[in-house]
Write a structure and sequence with these properties.
four-stranded mixed beta sheet; disordered C terminus; 6 strands; 16 helices
């Protein structure tokens, strides 16, 4: 099949999937105002797979905008109806995979300064109804969005790989993850420079100028060259082959760690990661709370202590009683991020570094019962499992805290 025929077939299937999506939502969602396509399809740079079995590898990532806020029961009912014709979960040959978000006109008007709302405003496509994106306020992305971006990338790396199964992973998966690592580095640097660009190709093309003008210390990493190289692999434009994809992935993790350290040194003068959670706790919620209250500093402390309590209660619900987790003053997410940083540092050289492993265990033990471990691949894998469980417990905490002056979704901060 020729490239043109491939593209025609892909465009036809994308249109069919979107038409089906619009049809299902217009029949299932009350007071529907707009359907907005985001992600790769919304930007027009979806990860395309030229394969007769799989036409597109990108999910359909959409925002459904309603006039009023939908109740939880309504959303569950809508999802049940949608699942009859669309897939929200595992992929299928015959049905598109939907990554679904609900919002309403009032939430758009009062949204927090988050990456996802920035992308929704500037890098999306209206596929049904009224263009409501002008309701989203103009804002500059706060420093903590870059922290979240970088440390979540490390977290994902820890989740999908273990020392025992590293030999079973295909080269293309390593190269795809390498691409994501370099691209996230470019995104974070643009946030640090207050020049965030939501379109990947533009972000990569602009990174050299940003580094030359503002961060010359990063020149040696050649981020533009590396990001463009691996980005072309990820999008299927290049059948790049390598003798050691694992080694290239480890190199990208090493550079990611260097960018994380540089980002926090420049942003908050963090010279020692022993003080990470103390330093970050003073700023990581403030930009978001400022939009909701007149007293962000006191509310910052209150919200973090509320999260500590909610996390403790979540552990009890999961039949894990760990009183030690109550005696922290910072949001538990900061300890999770710190532990992720140390556990990645522990293996970046290709073998387990005892001191870094000890630091990772110590950080996680502040909020989750994990035993001291030895420097073995089995114990390392067990630690990663515990770290993932702790993350899952944290992200399953109740969605909102309702106060007199504001209504903040905690989980959107991380």
């Amino acid at each position: 099949m020729s490239m043109k025929m491939n593209k025609d077939k892909i465009n036809k299937e994308i249109k069919e999937n979107l038409d089906l999506t619009i049809s299902v939502f217009t029949r299932s969602v009350p007071n529907l105002i707009s359907i907005i396509l985001v992600g790769g399809l919304g930007r027009g740079d979806a990860n395309i797979s030229y394969n007769k079995d799989t036409i597109i590898s990108s999910d359909i990532d959409i925002y459904v905008v309603t006039k009023n806020r939908l109740k939880g029961r309504e959303i569950k009912r809508i999802k049940r109806n949608i699942k009859k014709e669309l897939i929200i979960g595992p992929k299928s040959k015959n049905k598109p995979l939907i990554d679904l978000h609900f919002t309403n006109l009032n939430e758009l008007k009062n949204c927090l300064p988050l990456l996802r709302f920035y992308d929704l405003k500037y890098a999306s496509k209206i596929i049904y109804g009224v263009d409501v994106r002008e309701r989203i306020p103009n804002f500059t992305l706060p420093y903590y969005e870059g922290t979240r971006l970088l440390l979540n990338r490390l977290r994902y790396s820890c989740e999908w790989i273990t020392l025992k199964k590293i030999s079973e992973i295909e080269d293309r998966k390593f190269l795809t993850e390498t691409s994501k690592n370099y691209y996230i580095c470019c995104q974070a640097i643009s946030i640090l420079a207050r020049k965030y660009e939501p379109f990947p190709k533009k972000a990569v093309n602009n990174i050299d100028k940003t580094i030359n003008d503002l961060f010359p210390e990063l020149k040696d990493y050649d981020l533009k060259i590396k990001a463009k190289k691996y980005f072309s692999i990820r999008t299927g434009a290049n059948d790049y082959k390598t003798k050691n994809a694992k080694k290239e992935w480890l190199k990208s993790i090493e550079i990611l760690l260097k960018i994380i350290e540089y980002y926090h040194l420049k942003g908050i003068q963090l010279k020692s990661w022993n003080k990470f959670e103390k330093k970050l706790s003073k700023i990581h919620l403030i930009p978001y709370i400022k939009q909701k209250t007149r007293n962000p500093y006191s509310m910052n402390r209150l919200i973090q202590k509320t999260m500590v309590l909610k996390y403790f209660l979540k552990l009890i619900k999961k039949q894990t009683i760990y009183p030690r987790s109550l005696f922290i003053s910072e949001d538990p997410a900061l300890h999770l991020y710190k532990s992720t940083y140390y556990i990645t540092k522990a293996i970046i050289s290709g073998k387990i570094e005892p001191n870094m492993l000890k630091n990772a265990v110590h950080s996680l033990r502040r909020i989750y019962p994990v035993k001291k471990i030895k420097c073995s691949s089995d114990d390392y894998d067990k630690f990663l499992k515990n770290l993932k469980i702790a993350y899952d417990n944290y992200y399953s905490i109740g969605k909102t805290y309702k106060g007199k002056r504001f209504n903040v979704s905690f989980t959107t901060f991380h």
